[in-house]
Amino acid sequence: MNAHALDGYEISTDPARLDADLVHYWLATDAYWAVDRPRALHDRAVAGSLNFGLYASGSGRQAGYARVVTDHATFAWLCDVYICRDDRGRGLGTALIEAIADHLTPCGLSRLTLSTKDAHGVYEKVGFRTLVSPEQWMTLGLIDPGPVDI
Predict the structure, then answer these.
(1) Which helix (H) or strand (E) holds 20?
(2) Which residue from 8, 24, 51, 84 has the least number of CB within 10 angstroms?
(3) DSSP letters of 79-135?
(4) What's the CA gap between 13 and 131, in Å, rounded?
């Protein structure tokens, strides 16, 4: 893990520490993939996920968030990664992703996947790469509006 990037910050999976109002606000107002996400839907997603909070060490102020949907055995999907605008540019996103990967490594997962429109560089620093055989992957978009414009 990039401990230098976390200087002054800590990461926790304790759900009691999450500022649910703040996380919903961030995602519903400033995250292209979740803009206008209803609060009830957000709360259901959080309840069914492994959640990671990034906090300022001294004050405990939440500075970031990510969640993982996983069976803790074979597969995990990383989503809703968000760093507060005031805390960006310090390597915190990369450090959060590294901490998540480290946390999940003992589970022996086959893969940790994600989808991103514009943050490939952040994830590549941790070892993510594009799909080797995208033709093997499929999706069933139950409410899928189609491809996201880049």
Answers:
(1) helix 20-30
(2) 8
(3) EEEEE-GGGTTSSHHHHHHHHHHHHHGGGT-SEEE---SS-HHHHHTTT----S-GG
(4) 28
Contact in structure between 69 and 85 (CB atoms under 8 Å):
no
Residue the block writes with tokens 């003992």? 106
DSSP category for residue 72? S
Would you call 14 helix, strand, or coil by DSSP?
A: coil
Q: Which residues are CB-contacts of 48 (< 8 A; sequence separation ≥ 6)?
A: 69
Nearest residue to 11 (alpha-carbon basis) of 125, 95, 68, 105: 95
Instruction: Please state, in angstroms and as integers, the Cα–Cα distance from residue 118 to each residue in 17, 32, 127, 134, 135, following that order.
Output: 29, 10, 16, 18, 22
Question: One digit per residue, pLDDT tens: the chain, 150 residues?
Answer: 455 568 899 999 999 999 999 999 999 999 999 999 999 999 999 999 999 999 999 999 999 999 999 999 999 999 999 999 999 999 999 999 999 999 999 999 998 999 999 999 999 999 999 988 989 988 877 776 566 665
Tell me if 121 sits within 8 A of 85, measured CB to CB: no
